[in-house]
Amino acid sequence: MSARTVGVEEEFLLLDPGSGRPRAVGGAVLAAWDSAEPDADGAGLTGELHREQLETGTRPCRTLDELGAQLRNTRAEAAAAAARLGAAVAPLGTSPLPVEPTVSPVERYARMVQRFGITVDDQLTCGCHVHVAIDSAEEGVAALDRIRPWLAPLLAVSANSPFWQGADSGHDSFRSQVWSRWPSAGAYAPFGSAQGYREFVDGVLATDTVLDEGMVYLDARLSRDHPTLEVRVADVCRDPDDAVLVAALVRGLVETAVRGWRAGDGVPPVRTEVLRLAAWRAGRSGVTGDLLHPATWRPAPAADVLGALVAHVADALDEAGDRTAVDALLAGVLARGTGAQRQRAVRERTGSLAAVAQDAALPAP
């Protein structure tokens, strides 16, 4: 049986190359780029909530080599598009420098501003969303219910947002703290079935709190537009290899969960409140401190928890041909550090947050 397809969406900051400050040129970048319109698979360049952002998407991929190549290509395409306007693209979860973001001129976003106020202003954050193919909504929900304990480690390994409005936040992923301000964001309880998931979504919409189904901002959900399960917990990764690692682990988690469901295995009995604690710890220290271990829900070194995650999905990784690559990619990020560690190292070396932003800017082809 061939491996499930996997695709990745990445959000980026648009920066002034000279100052490192975000630039509100998202709409102009898209207008000037001939291939900006995404295709049916979601690949291409799109705008985002704020004009200081740009989003890319890969096509569904079977192999990690294919995914890595597409991630590098889409990053290069975004950098080239921004360069036409004299801007740079940077994979940063938050802006290191102070910024007053501007909302993109889209009617839906205007409604969000009216309803959520300053929460919208604060959402100049960039994440990484992984889509894994599923055969049905029932299969997807079975996977959603079973991957819950392992989502926080994915945030830890992707952490790339330590600075907020010109200061060190004390978190490796402050983006996750900002994102949690949405009323529909974060960890979730098991749904039990596709019908249970649909009833949950319909119930959320019936409260008239969020605008639409697109604002059901759970850490993982069923995609509205594609036959995929979408994991949304990660920061945009500083290094494309880290995005490949996150995607491989997500695919392994989905496949392992579906196999467990088919074998009659139950849903792991962990409270949603504990998952919130696990996510907070992951965002606080990334891979440099302790995470909550899903086997005990007690603190353990991040490397041990990530190793346990790989062991949990080992059979799926082996059958997809991903195990060797995942072992190497995980060893790489643990050795060199996450994007958050890179940002702090640049700040320590230069004393400049502008240098932090400039260091992350992707070279224009």
From TrEMBL:
<dbReference type="InterPro" id="IPR006336">
    <property type="entry name" value="GCS2"/>
</dbReference>
<dbReference type="InterPro" id="IPR050141">
    <property type="entry name" value="GCL_type2/YbdK_subfam"/>
</dbReference>
<dbReference type="InterPro" id="IPR011793">
    <property type="entry name" value="YbdK"/>
</dbReference>
<dbReference type="Pfam" id="PF04107">
    <property type="entry name" value="GCS2"/>
</dbReference>
<dbReference type="GO" id="GO:0042398">
    <property type="term" value="P:modified amino acid biosynthetic process"/>
</dbReference>
<keyword id="KW-0436">Ligase</keyword>
<protein>
    <recommendedName>
        <fullName>Putative glutamate--cysteine ligase 2</fullName>
        <ecNumber>6.3.2.2</ecNumber>
    </recommendedName>
</protein>
<dbReference type="InterPro" id="IPR014746">
    <property type="entry name" value="Gln_synth/guanido_kin_cat_dom"/>
</dbReference>
<comment type="function">
    <text>ATP-dependent carboxylate-amine ligase which exhibits weak glutamate--cysteine ligase activity.</text>
</comment>
<keyword id="KW-0547">Nucleotide-binding</keyword>
<dbReference type="GO" id="GO:0005524">
    <property type="term" value="F:ATP binding"/>
</dbReference>
<comment type="similarity">
    <text>Belongs to the glutamate--cysteine ligase type 2 family. YbdK subfamily.</text>
</comment>
<dbReference type="GO" id="GO:0004357">
    <property type="term" value="F:glutamate-cysteine ligase activity"/>
</dbReference>
<keyword id="KW-0067">ATP-binding</keyword>
